[in-house]
Structures are given as structure tokens and as C-alpha cells.
Design a protein that fits this description.
Elements (H helix, E strand, L loop, with lengths): L14 H15 L4 E4 L6 H6 L3 E4 L8 H4 L9 H11 L4 H4 L3 E5 L3 H13 L2 E4 L10 H20 L5 H23 L10 H11 L5 H21 L9 E7 L6 H9 L3 E7 L4 H4 L10 H10 L10 H13 L4 E7 L3 H16 L4 E6 L6 H14 L1
Parallel strand pairs: 1-2, 1-3, 3-4, 5-6, 5-7, 7-8
Length: 384
């Protein structure tokens, strides 16, 4: 294999980032193919079946946003700007070494950003229906997955067979089951895991080159936390207020919001975003006659605020409140995320109808509002 070339600014990076670049470089030089993905609607089984490592690329840091704003408008979602910024500055090893990036037409900001991202790195766009209820929605999405399959086969010279898809489904189902087992540790009182530990573990899993590696890491964490819980050494106070987090993807606010909750008398018992139990609890039938259609139907069933209507999300949240015995709900909305921001009103109504306190936090990845956020969270938890 030809040598993979590091970015010109490699020597300026901190050690942990350099290690990420070296890991990705070695993977590529050993014949590995990397596809970056940016949304829960991405059918990862197709990438697995093509022998491609699927790596999550959503930006979760304010670091590159000033650079991104040279190109993108300032009043845009921080996730969109951060994602583009890491590509623009060549600071993310997985974006830099990606052979292709898989985008999707969820929000308007992302789909227009992808046009610019495509100038830096080939970006293939999946066209997502805006409703799950239209009679033709399933057919549109099925056609999109067929087109993606053909694209991957053509670009990488591979054949994605039904057998490979079934094997990929089996592996991804195992990963979903492992994640759900981790989530379920929070049902106990006190919960067995601090929510920020769980969030960081899930975020780390996005950078695994295989589902098997991710499963192994999660199961190791589960065993460790179960052992600590059974031996009474977890040191999680039963008096901590049980918080359910819902809303936008939370990778960029784990410390800004998650740590503040758990430093002020709360513990996160449920992560109700697109990386949480809502997305991972449904398995794909690996024995379905048309396995590609089964994969297609599975992903289209994901409840996201880009869908109209999206009542399934509210119903799921109410079920999670009961399951995890939540004392309060915090809805995290990233600035300029209009779909989640508008939908927050319906979420508040659903939560308050259950008699559960609710707070909406609209924020970004910067630290400018950190003091205000901490004050509001501390007051909310004290009120509980």
C-alpha cells in the first residue's frame, strides 16, 4: 500500500491528536478504507458489508469554529460549523484520512454545508424523506440505500452481498444490545454509572475502526461498573436527583452541561438523544427476505425532529421518564437548530403533563454562557 501522507501542521498538534493521526495513517497503510458518517440515519451495515471502517465525524468542539466562520455564517448550528471546521483545518485525523464522507439531508444547514465539504473531501449525500407517514417514504429511502450500495461497490471495487449484509446486521445488533445493556445500568437506584462516564464512552466508540472493538470496550465498562455497584464501591449517592437529557446530539456539551449536572446534585440516568436508547433499542431482523429493505425500514423509523410529524419522540421520552424514574428533564437545544428548538414546546408539554419538572437549555460549544448555564442547572436541581 502507498504511504498515507500526514497534514502539513501535524507537528503543531498536541500528542493525543498526533496519536489519532498515526492510528488512522497506519490503518490506511494496512489497506483499510475509512468512511466518515454524520447522522444516525446513516445505514452503517452497508459500510460494514463493504469492508469499510465507519467513523463518526460530527464536530463536538468550539476549537475550529472561528476557522469555519471564514466560510460559513456565524448564526449556524455549532455542530455544523465544528464539523466543517475540522475538515477545513485538517485537524481531525478521521476526516483527513476519510476516503468518502456520507452526509444526509436532515437540516438545511448540514445539507448546504455538505456542498462545501465536498470541495475538501468527497461527500455522498443521502436524500432523506421528511416524513415517515407518507405512503412513498419507505420507497424513497429504499432507493437511496440502493444508490448508496451501488456507489460503494463502484468506488471501492467491492460486492455487497446479502450474506455480508446479514453478517453486518448481526454485528450491529450486538453493538446495539451492548449499548442498551449499558443504558439499563441506570435503572437501579442509585444508578451504576455516572452519566458523563457513559456519554464519554459512547463518544469514544465513534472512533473505533470496527464494531467488534466498540462492543469489547462497552462490555468492559459494563463489567467494571457492575462489579463496582455490587461491591458498593461506585460512590454514587442515592440522594442525587435523576435527570433525563433529551434534545440535540450532546457530544459537544458533555462537560459544559453533563458535568455541571453531576457536580450540582444530579445524575444523568437517561440520554434521550439520537445516540441513546431511542435509536439503539430496535433491532434489525437479520433473517428478513429482503435484508436491504429491512435495513432501510429500520433507519427510517428513527424519531428525529427533522421528521414531520415526530410524535414518536415524545412518546418515547415519556416511556423513558417512567423507566428511569426521572426527577427532572433537561432539553438541550444547540443554537440555530430550528427543528429541535420549535419541537421543544411539544416536549415541554408532554413532560409537564406527567408532572415532571422541565428545563430548556439553548446553548453552543463556547464557554461564554457557562456561568449562566451552571447557575440555571444548579437552581433547577435544587428545586427538584
Amino acid at each position: 500500500m502507498s504511504e498515507a501522507v500526514l497534514p502539513s501542521k501535524f507537528d503543531e498538534f498536541e500528542d493525543s491528536r498526533r496519536q489519532g493521526f498515526i492510528k488512522a495513517k497506519e490503518f490506511k497503510e494496512n489497506g483499510g478504507i475509512i468512511a466518515g458518517w454524520l447522522c444516525s440515519y446513516t445505514p452503517l451495515e452497508l459500510l460494514d458489508a463493504a469492508g469499510i471502517a465507519a467513523i463518526g465525524l460530527c464536530g463536538t468542539s468550539n476549537e475550529t469554529i472561528p476557522d469555519a466562520e471564514r466560510v460559513l455564517p456565524k448564526n449556524l448550528c455549532p455542530l455544523v460549523k465544528s464539523t466543517y471546521g475540522f475538515a477545513y483545518t485538517e485537524k481531525c485525523p478521521y476526516t483527513y484520512f476519510s476516503d468518502i464522507i456520507i452526509g444526509e439531508t436532515t437540516c438545511d444547514g448540514k445539507k448546504k454545508m455538505y456542498e462545501l465539504l465536498n470541495e475538501l473531501k468527497e461527500t455522498y449525500i443521502l436524500h432523506l424523506p421528511q416524513s415517515q407517514e407518507r405512503s412513498y417514504s419507505k420507497e424513497i429511502w429504499y432507493e437511496e440505500l440502493k444508490l448508496l450500495k451501488e456507489k460503494l461497490e463502484r468506488k471501492f471495487g467491492v460486492k455487497i452481498t446479502d450474506e455480508k449484509l446479514r453478517n453486518a446486521v448481526r454485528q450491529r445488533n450486538n453493538l446495539r444490545a451492548a449499548k442498551c445493556e449499558l443504558f439499563h445500568l441506570q435503572e437501579s437506584c442509585p444508578p451504576a454509572v455516572m452519566g458523563t462516564d457513559m456519554m464519554l464512552a459512547l463518544q469514544k466508540g465513534n472512533f473505533c475502526f470496527s464494531a467488534e472493538e466498540n462492543i469489547s470496550n462497552i462490555r468492559t465498562l459494563i463489567s467494571q461498573k457492575k462489579k463496582e455497584f455490587e461491591e458498593g464501591t461506585s460512590n454514587i449517592d442515592v440522594k442525587l436527583k435523576r435527570i433525563l437529557l433529551t434534545g440535540c446530539p450532546m457530544g459537544g456539551v458533555i462537560k459544559k452541561v453533563g458535568s455541571v449536572i453531576e457536580d450540582n446534585g444530579g445524575v444523568i440516568v437517561c440520554i434521550d438523544d439520537c445516540s441513546g436508547e431511542r435509536t439503539n433499542s430496535h433491532m434489525i431482523d437479520e433473517e428478513a427476505d429482503d435484508i436491504l429493505r429491512e435495513i432501510s425500514d429500520h433507519y427510517l423509523s428513527i424519531n428525529c425532529s427533522v421528521m414531520t410529524p415526530n410524535d414518536g419522540r415524545m412518546e418515547n421520552t415519556k416511556n423513558m421518564i417512567k423507566k428511569y424514574k426521572a426527577d427532572g428533564v433537561i432539553d438541550i437545544v444547540l443554537q440555530a437548530c430550528h427543528t429541535f428548538n420549535v419541537e421543544s414546546h411539544k416536549m415541554e408539554r408532554a413532560v409537564r403533563e406527567m408532572g415532571i419538572p422541565f428545563m430548556k437549555l439553548e446553548t453552543d460549544y463556547s464557554t461564554t454562557d457557562s456561568g449562566q448555564i451552571e447557575t440555571r442547572i444548579a437552581a433547577f436541581i435544587e428545586m427538584l
